[in-house]
User: What shape does this take?
Amino acid sequence: MRDFTFSNITKIIFGRGVEEKVGSEAAKWGRKVLLHYGGGHIVRSGLKAKVEASLREAGLEIVELGGVQPNPRLSLVKEGIDLVRREKIDLILAVGGGSVIDSAKAIAIGVPYGGDVWDFYAGKAKAEESLPLGVILTIPAAGSESSPSSVITNEDGWLKRGYTANVMRPKFALLNPELTFSLPPYQTACGVADMMAHIMERYFTNQTDVGFSDHLCEAALRGIIQYAPLAVREPENYEARANIMWAGTIAHNDLLGMGREQDWASHDIEHELSALYDIAHGAGLAIVFPAWMKYVYKHNPNRFVQFAVRVFGVDQDFYNPERTILEGIRRLEEFFRSIGLPTRLQDAEIPADRLEEMAAKATKNDTHKLGGFLPLGQKDVLAIYELCR
Amino acid sequence: MRDFTFSNITKIIFGRGVEEKVGSEAAKWGRKVLLHYGGGHIVRSGLKAKVEASLREAGLEIVELGGVQPNPRLSLVKEGIDLVRREKIDLILAVGGGSVIDSAKAIAIGVPYGGDVWDFYAGKAKAEESLPLGVILTIPAAGSESSPSSVITNEDGWLKRGYTANVMRPKFALLNPELTFSLPPYQTACGVADMMAHIMERYFTNQTDVGFSDHLCEAALRGIIQYAPLAVREPENYEARANIMWAGTIAHNDLLGMGREQDWASHDIEHELSALYDIAHGAGLAIVFPAWMKYVYKHNPNRFVQFAVRVFGVDQDFYNPERTILEGIRRLEEFFRSIGLPTRLQDAEIPADRLEEMAAKATKNDTHKLGGFLPLGQKDVLAIYELCR
Assistant: This one.
């Protein structure tokens, strides 16, 4: 096991109606709040009005900034930073899914920083400070509600880059599974693929003797596989929604990754897809992850046998590990398809004519290797994109 | 799933040599520290000298209070409270296992409280404040290094009582698996039983639709079962010690219990044993837990079938659930015995002549029911003690 430091200060308040506690929680962190959100969904559902009422009742002043898009844009982040500085805002409240939270995180670290906020995402600076951030989660997927990570897209070159710093963890997150009842099946499934990928990026490791967290990762995957079909089929099933919502948080608060070398190549490979085609991140991962597995499994077959047996209950062929491994990958693809996700580019109507360009961009023209499990160069990444066809 | 709030602020620093970071971590919380510990073990091992050097190097002033016994005593807690007040100490550093940490927690909440610190344990007061507390863990077992709980024994009547409040969670905990190399096999095994019991107290629930955390609990148990025999057999096996140490923290930081009704009857039943006979808490649990299971399984047989199948891989008898259940309990006892633990009172040389007295005390003369799974009165508890024979 590797040495590690784990510190997750996010206070999770989980259950029916918890969004009504936002005023009292937010008031612990200041008097003036930036209400950051996406489109009209939270207006139509009445959530925005409810949140505003709770904030006002707690004596908070509200400034709002909506308009966060999926794959949140740098330009809006910069607009937010200016607004927060101008209005002398004390804390940021993100109401939405991963995109809104990631955008809010970027604003929160951008405000106290003297330079360009993109510096963090470009690997040129480290965030030492952050404005306090609270979350009301409406889409269980990205795990951003308690993670130290944020992914932002720079429209200048459509670069999608992630940044991780412990100061970005939200101070509190309110998780009401009922708020996810209105998520359509496809978006629910995309969230499921995203959280499964968060676990698998941590699971596929060269680190030996991490058996305790292996078991936890496998358990989290099995728990998601148990409830996801129900959440997709019965959108208003509270129990299915609750288990999936809690799973999304656990999948990415990095508890499951402690002591392990992690991979994250599939995320990088997918980022090029969703930056170019605006496909949902989870759908892109459902295409990329199985392809990545097919390309890399020979590097550490035992780990893929373990995945097949422990996560999908594949009957192990003790004489032919490859057969077990491929059956495990097949079951993963089958699971993704069963909840309505694409597993090939053409399923998502993505053409295969820019694979070379994406492989070059993901690896910065072969100068940058992807992944901790088996570092991948441009040729490898291209081969994985080819396996997505 | 039940509504819940989860907030665990403890910063875990895990790995080889992390105790040397104690000075820099402690200095974030004050200038004057109470070094709280047990007996001479940390002196002989050189740990105490190393800790003092690190604290002094960081400019901290040290006041020490040793002498914590297993089943930590209220009288020493009171002595600590007086000492901290008199010396105007800023933070408490517990160096040891669960007993030392629990004693430190009691001091930490006792100092800012106007009344008698036993009020918290007697259920007469709620702790709103705590002095900051840091931990260097030497015994993986109680999980107290990041839990919100403390158990103290009042010598006046030998009452052993627990108290839980989120303010008691340590600010930081330094976990170096090497510090556990010197733990004898029996003490290692007692720690294992304690952490398994912490998970099982959360696992046996009437709450339905907690499948996600069911999987996590089962995984944590399987991870412990995987590494415990190795840690017992090869005391200096870093990987076994590391997995067990991390498991002990996860088992009791309450992440695995979120959304679930919990039980805790076995802990209460065991507390009477170790209060009277000073048996190690873990050894007492290895005796009590299987007996409790035998007494209560009919209340919810499915859950015990699930335990047998998922935790111990029992081949399910689909026509005879009871056979599967009893085989699961038998495997748990067999596992405890395989790592050198007692599973009957006579194995621990405890006489059976005060069972009635213990049953009366545990239930406060049948006025107080034990456990959330199946509330138990005095007769039930006596029957469970009888099953321990």
Remarks:
- The two ends of chain B are 37 Å apart (CA to CA).
- Chain B has two domains: 11-179, 184-387.
- Chain B has a mean pLDDT of 97.
- Strands of chain B lie at 4-6, 11-14, 32-37, 61-65, 91-96, 133-137, 149-154, 159-164, 172-175.
